[in-house]
Hints:
Layout: H1 8-15, E1 20-29, E2 39-45, E3 65-67, H2 69-82, E4 87-91, H3 100-110, E5 116-120, E6 134-139, H4 154-158, E7 165-170, H5 175-188, E8 193-198, H6 205-214, E9 220-221, H7 225-230
Parallel strand pairs: 2-4, 4-5, 5-6, 6-7, 7-8, 8-9
Antiparallel strand pairs: 1-2, 1-3
The structure holds iron/sulfur cluster.
Amino acid sequence: MDSLILDDNIMEEIRLGQKLPIVERFITISGEAPTMGQPMYLVRFSGCNLSCRYCDTPYRNEINETLTPAQLCDEIDRVMVSYPGIIILFTGGEPLLKPRSTIVTDIAKRLPDVQFYVETNGSVPIDEAAPDNLHYVLDWKTPSAGGGETFCIDNIRRMRTDHDVIKFVTDESDLPYIKKKIEMIRRENELVRVYLSPQTGRIELTKLADFILSNKLNAAISVQLHKIIWGEKRGV
Length: 236
Ligand code: SF4
């Protein structure tokens, strides 16, 4: 990829949503729920409104490429031809930062035969009228992330049981907090899928399993499969 010169014009196009700022994009194996293990085309958008203590993408604000929404659709079309049936993941940073939220919905509507997953930090409202081929993975930030309560509570109501999931990335100290939040989620929605993803080296899997079973929680463990396969490497 040629290096990109970010002049004022490009920054204005990004601000207006005419161009999408992209850190990187590549084909890989999905590492996390609900698509864990599946081949996917990952598009990492630049920029994030949070700064979590354990963030594993310190390069989240890099802009290495910009594409118009139409160009990104063309790129996805090209990938679908070369790798039929592959799923698309929009991640970040935060892929739903304004004005990207509506652009993401528009792209999914323009490509109805493609399955899109959006990994969001949950702090911005998801589209409750999203098309059937658009799925949200909402990462509910816990106390160990720092930054306080950032989750947009209205997203619990906006989530579609068959499409969207909540994930908690947890260490041992987060468990009491997560129990309360899962109980809250269950009061609103008994069936929406909830995943617990252990922070590397911060909680034993046996501890997490015991926590789920002893509290009779309707939640699943999600390990970061891509790190098991390739280790802590960028671009996989
Ligand atoms: S929301 Fe995600 S990308 Fe943003 S700082 Fe937190 S972990 Fe990093």
